Each structure stands twice: as structure tokens, then as C-alpha cells.
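Thread: quick sanity check before group meeting

JM: Hey all, I'm pulling together slides for Thursday and realized we never actually wrote out the predicted structure for the chain we discussed last week. Dropping the sequence here so it's in one place. If anyone has concerns about the input, flag it before I start.
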Amino acid sequence: MILPILSYGHAILRQKCQPVTVDYPELNALIDNMWHTMYRANGCGLAASQIGKPITLFVVDSKPTFENYTAEERSRYFPQGDEGITETFINARITQRFEETWEDEEGCLSIPSLHRKVERPWSIEVEYTDRHFVKQHRMFSGITARMIQHEYDHTQGILYLDYLQPLTRKMLESKLRKISKGHISVNYPMRFRK
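JM (edit): ok, ran it. Output follows.
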């Protein structure tokens, strides 16, 4: 089922999310719906809070990005041997952010039409539970690590806009107001603030 994505301005997007328990009602259906919703919106990641569920759950698929990149882009954005992931992250926790950082453009399905450069660590270590409730502890780098950090931030009530300089954010205020009121056209269902 395709679910509407909350637009910028919804209070849930600013909430710190609650842990997911193994008995969370209809968890598998929710995860399936998140994947369908993300793909319908042509996204590479989606957090449960973006569909109105303030729980520590997100999905990331960096494989299509790898497949669509040129060989030169692949070598720039993916470590050697990495072809991307398709993964569900439950109760994720970033346990280490490595020193090397890089800047790249980010966007968000909840903030359509806006993209800005954000500096993030190139590599991270993450502890999480997969959709089968198997505990994982993995290191991710490059564009995959960026996608994970972006979605993880959603579970903490943080948006990529929070990393921008105050002047840049000030210049975006009128566009953000339009987005929050639904004065924007997107090709996927959204819930705007009333």
C-alpha cells in the first residue's frame, strides 16, 4: 500500500522516535508499505516518522544509485567492492562516526524540490536489527553511509536542513512555508499541514 508522506512542518518529523518491539502490530506490513511508498516516490530511503509513525524504523536502498551511476561516479561515491544495499533498519544506533567527512547534495521526500549540500562522515558503524529481528553491527561508507545517516536523523527528529548555515536556512524560509502549506506539486501522495 502506498502511504502519504508527511510534508515539512508536521510535528512528528521533529519527534525523537520510540524503539520498536518485536510484537509491534503488523510490523511486516508496515515495512512492506514503507518500501512501496519509497519506490513510488523515487526515493532511496524512508523513515517511519515520514509516514506518521514515530518509531525507530527506516529503509534504505542504495543499489539503484549504484546501478545508475557511471563507472567514474561509482568510484567516487562507493568504496571498492560495494554495490549498495537494500536494508531495513530497526532500532538503529550509530556507534561510530569516522573522522573523514565529505560534502554532497541531499534532498528529502518530506521537503520536495529542495536540495542542499550537507557535510557528513564518509564512514559510520551502525548497530541495528534487520526486519527478521536479527541483530547487526556493520560499517557503511560513501553514499550508502550518507543515506543511512539522513534516515537515522529522522528517527532523532533531525532534518538535513538543521545542518545548513543560518543564513542559508533564512533564505529558504518562504520555500519551506510553501511546502508546509501544500503549495507544491509532487508525483506521490503527501499530507500537508493544515
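AS: nice. The mean pLDDT is 96. The helical segments are 27-40, 63-68, 71-77, 142-155, 166-180.
JM: adding both to the slides.
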